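Working notes for the structural subgroup meeting. M.R. asked for a predicted model of this chain before we commit to crystallization trials. I am recording the input and output together here so anyone reviewing the notebook later can reproduce the run.

Input as submitted:
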Amino acid sequence: MTEPDPFGRGTIRTQQDRDGTFRVSGFLNCWMEASVKVLKLSAQGLPQSWITLEQAVTHYAADEVRWEAGQQVAVFHGGHNALTGQQSIITVNSIIGTQGVPRINPFDLVSGLTNPKLFVRDRNVCAYCGGHFHESVLTREHIVPVSQKGPDHWMNVVTACRSCNHRKSSRTPEQANMPLLYAPYVPSLWEDFILRNRRILSDQMAFLMAHVPKSSRLMA
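Returned structure, recorded in token form:
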């Protein structure tokens, strides 16, 4: 069967097996599937991953959701129970706490370094000229150049426009007489979850930002 998406983004195909097991057989709107993500947390409230609506439904159907927060983002309708005639309905919230051993330990995690994450960390601001640029003209700039054995690590990289990166070349800021306008830092677990998702809902952002260190550039 198909049901209209309550938020006007398309329809969702759902199905219930003969034994009463609820499952999602597919999405009819690819934009919705790709864009809407649910913030999955451990039962203790630690971020674990961004998951699709379909993945979230499997947690609800398996009775693994211990608590939920945020807004309702989808309603899934299944088949009718052969004995009671009652229809299966699963509502999905934007934030869910699930049972099980946490996959991520916040004390062991080092955020994976990618250019999109780096640019968001640095607010798309060049560390040398202070200009604000579109990400298409930004680069990952190594403070201590790779040619001088500088590591490709959060503490040795900043965002730079192409012009400043070219001018600095294979020199340190001191050698190039180009002082840094801000210092690099390693994002926290909470920041990392913000950096890795570009379509965060407002309630998800509020939840994550409440745990971001005050020293974070995201707080500026």
